[in-house]
Amino acid sequence: MTDTPLAIIGAGLAGLTAARTAHEAGIRSLVLEASDRIGGRIDSIRGSDGQIVGDLGPTWVWPPFQPGVPRWLERLGLGTFEQYDSGEAVLDGFAERPVCQPLPGQYGMARIAAGPGSLVDAMAAELPDDAIQTGHAVNAVRHHDDGRLRIETAGREPLIAERVLIAAPLRIVAERIQLPADIGAPLQDMLRAMPTWMAAQAKAVIRYPRPFWRESGLSGRIASRLGPLFEAHDHTSLDGEAALFGFVATPPAQRGAETLRTAILDQLTRCLGPQAAAPTDVVIRDWADAPWICADADRHGPPEHPSVGPEALRTGHLDGRLWFCAAETAEQSPGLIEGALLAGEAAARAAVQGLEGDA
User: Fold this and answer.
1) Is 254 exposed, middle or buried (0-12, 13-18, 19+ CB in 10 A)?
2) Which of 73, 257, 267, 357 makes an SS bond possible with 78, Cβ 3.0 to 4.6 Å?
3) Domain residue ranges in the chain
4) The CATH fold of domain 1-42+116-197+305-359
5) What SUPFAM superfamilies has UniProt attached to this entry (predicted)?
């Protein structure tokens, strides 16, 4: 068996923030990730030079209203820039043909200069080389004979930990990970009830040689009743890599890749003109197909934004040995980038305090 003071289940932003927080406090942790990559709902398109040129998961932060974001960005040496919103938007399906007109924007909406993937890279960069193990799906957390917790995964020996932080989506935990019976049915019900933000969403990034829509006085923003994109925005990078991105309205069961790609280009051509028909790349990320992100309840239920959940999601369990810290557990910005940062940080601090008290 392998022993560790702190085990973290899930290498998304919350789990990596927890690992980074513990590492800075001098506590060794081991992060177990079920998939073959780190980042969770943050996924990036990278150019030939490795630089991030598109976001397939979350894109925006709101620094004036999310103090946790600038605090962490400053620590990690990362910056932001405003979401491009100059010019007219296109209303699609509100009249016989698309209509161009101004739409109100969101004050404070910003993008991370190097993409949200740079958050993932920066969090992981300071961890020891063996701190993160991908391809290890946890199937059970049990009591060990000596009072610690035993983590069981397929294909590896059990891991024994003094403290365990679960940073996986709560509904995935409820569906896939067996927890000790004394965790209690009410808490299990809370896990099942908490929607995973954007879990069943598909997002498309469409790259172009240049942001031609700006030349026509358009913002790149589209609001549509026809689809397949119900919403689109300028996604050009700070370095000038031109792109649009959009959220797909097509239900998960009807998202055939080639059919969807064709329909997206038809829509963009209808709204933005013939130059939209000739992208350099179209990348569609269907999160409903991500087995460790999208739970059955997310895939088959209505899309919901998580509200602030019960306090039990932010407190220790099993005598303070087990904590949940997915982004949806946060009491501020649940489900968003800030929520992941705050939840991972808070749970790690609690675990560190407990470990220091045991010493």
Assistant:
1) exposed
2) 73
3) 1-42+116-197+305-359
4) FAD/NAD(P)-binding domain (3.50.50)
5) FAD-linked reductases, C-terminal domain, FAD/NAD(P)-binding domain
